[in-house]
Amino acid sequence: MIRGKCPICGKVFEVAKLDDLPSFPFCTDRCRLVDLGRWIDGAYAIPEAARPVQAEVPEAEEDEE
Ligand SMILES: [Zn+2]
Questions:
Q1: 2: CA distance to ligand 1 center in Å?
Q2: 15 - beta bridge partners?
Q3: pTM
Q4: Where is mean pLDDT largest: 6-10, 44-48, 55-59?
Q5: What CATH code is carried by the domain that includes residue 42?
Q6: Who has greater pLDDT, 17 or 62?
């Protein structure tokens, strides 16, 4: 018997074997997707925050005659 606690909703589940719970370590696919969504949000948010704000570079001045 395998006991676990869903890291998303905190629900405690108990299964005979891991094959019985494809969404392990989450209680359901729904919680698994919630976690995946958070991870993706973080993956996008971190590089965005770390990237320095780049000022728009004006076009190179052309010699006017
Ligand atoms: Zn859950």
A1: 16
A2: 2
A3: 0.59
A4: 6-10
A5: 3.30.50.10
A6: 17
